[in-house]
Design goal:
It contains 17 helices and 15 strands. With 463 residues, it is an alpha/beta fold. It has a seven-stranded mixed sheet with strand order 2-1-3-4-5-6-7, sandwiched between helices. It has a six-stranded parallel sheet with strand order 8-11-12-13-14-15. Helix content is 38%, strand content 17%. The protein has two domains: 151 residues, 3-Layer(aba) Sandwich (Rossmann fold), CATH 3.40.50.280; 276 residues, Alpha-Beta Barrel (TIM Barrel), CATH 3.20.20.
Length: 463
Amino acid sequence: MNIILLQPYFDSHIIAPPLSLGYLASTLQQEKYHKVEIIDCNAKAIKLPTLLTILKEKKPDLVGVTILSNFFSEAREAILKIKEISPAKIAIGGPHVTALPEFSLQETNADYAIVGEGERTFAELVKFLCFSKPTLDEIDGLVFRINGQILRNKARSLIPDIDNLPFPAWDLLNPQDYPPAPHGAFYKRFPVAPIITTRGCPFSCKFCSSAVTWRKILRKRNPKSVVDEIQLLRDNYNIKEFHFEDDNFTISREHAISICQEIIKRKLDIVWAAPNGIRVDSLDEELIKVMKQSGCYLLAFGIESGAQEILNHMDKKLDVKRISTILNTVQKYRIETWGFFIIGLPGETEETIQQTISLSRRLPLNRAQFCNFTPLPGTTIFDDWVKDNKLSELEWSKLSFSGNAIYETDKLSQKKLTLLQKKAFRAFYFRPKVFLGTLFKIKPRQIKWLFKRFKAYSYLQVK
């Protein structure tokens, strides 16, 4: 079977290999009779007309499309156009589809939707399309339509041992083909590759939709397997920097230490960062020290708010009083620190947001990111919010944490929250030490992408 796995083009300031497609592809490659290809339209700015021309030439039997909420509109348009020019079956998946499967299938007119962890479900769907076995109603985690009616099978259980999954298909997802616009914005060495060492997070932060896919169950890869993948990428693809994209790389202290010790043991000349955010209170000095020794140069922290009552309301389970002490220890080992803050969480007032701004300035942070709160599909906050915003009428591109506020609290309007977000940005960065420290980290080839990032967040103006 001729299979194409697709990430549609959308306007993004973050362009990195989509690991989800890499894992789907490598799982399918184990069946030698499939021809599998990944087309990441963002990697080479392949817009829809060009994509349609490519698909006409390649004549796929099946197209798998990954979808996040902020590019659902672009994915929907691409799928509808593909349907016009190709007889290929289309399957959709990803966090947005997992949260809203029936809606996503109906809106896109795709043939199948994959709910949750996709490797086994997608592989069984391919077997059905090739051999009519198993039957559609026997494929757990699948949503499909028969005679115009949308049917949903029972949920698929999570893969208990994720070491049984092959490495992502790096031969189809070469990090060398990507521009200098990784998840972490800044980088130390190039090229950069993302990697995951765990799936899932056991915490219950109300603003996070991770649990819709991973069900708050933490599963860990064997540390030696993780470092085998790092070594493969270094040796075969000349990768010099790695970004751990786990929901929380340090959630298991023993796991993180074992990976670092394995990197040290093999004397790998690499650097790494954790730009997806880790919990501040998951660190201690012994862990920080071994992380530094293994090549860590940057850690991002999901701090979210400087107001303890807001953190408590969001079930963040983080003590504001502990943050400064731990970050001081991180900086003691010359590891850069990056703080993530959210402006406009439910229950926010101007006073609580000022506490967040004040905390960001007091903490020993090299950089900070201030996002307007965005309700994400799969959270109860989204379910409550969407009652006044019909799904079919949402501007999905705005569900990205960047740009102007789309949510408002009982006390603060969208316009006021947007103004406060920009105030936070200016208050943090318009200090000589921070501004110059950030400026000197910028590499010439990166200027274009950082400008795009600042434009996306529209920090300096209100539309």
